[in-house]
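Appendix B, record 7
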Amino acid sequence: MWTALQLDPTTLVDARLIVHWASQLVSAAGSTLLPSRPDFGHTNLGWEPGVRALTGRPLGADSQPPTRVGLSVSTLTLVVLRGSAVVEELGLAGRTLDEGKAWLARVLRGALRRDVAELVLPNHEMPAHALGSGQSFDIDAHGDALLELERWLGNASAVLERFVRDDDQASQVRLWPHHFDMASLITLVPHDDPEHAKSINVGVSLGDHFYAQPYAYTSPWPRPTSPSLAPPLTHGHWHREGFFAAVLTASELLAGDREGQARRLESFFAQADELSRTLLGVRRS
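Structure tokens (predicted):
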């Protein structure tokens, strides 16, 4: 179900950075306790509508129901789940990343009945923030923005799940802790070398150095040889600097009536997907 977006999306940057850093604690459980995957899939996250939280992969084959770690975005609370039930939680306000890691390691030791000496954050570059240097989480001024980011995550997950539901070429919809985007990769023409496989990446980023606001994107790969020939979009525009993709910024999405937000996003993905297939020379089967 779509929840109407309300805030000026350009005001979400500070809250987005805080949530991005907090989500690394969830990914740390997978990074430390699960077998490594070449695509870093052991660290990615999903959206759990029932508890309104980002959740990691199940931990431990012997843990039934499965134990998972999650993050409630609107309250910035770490949660540990058994199945779909929250069994432990820790508010991060006033605490540091190291304190969050220590608490999580202690709780997982008991939940998984195994030695969890220390959790290791995923090894990737993060946007600069004082949280990475030991500052504690301060969320007092970000309550409305955190709730809006939660709406973005829930909406993005629901729309993307519907969009790829019947496409057996599409991967799971997951949030990637590096770029902090929720996405699915649609592999149109497989190849032993991923650089030569034809694919379309569809997703929603919560913002980055390209756009200081959330944005939806549809990116064909390999990059078309003549991107300037891409037909115009009804909603959004073609981004050509640094990466090539159809992009619908939050400002563009919110420019119309509130009731039509979901419809505009779904229309964007449908048109951008069709045009991307045309640019790649791949017909829909």
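Remarks on this record: DSSP finds five helices and eleven strands in the chain. The mean pLDDT is 95.
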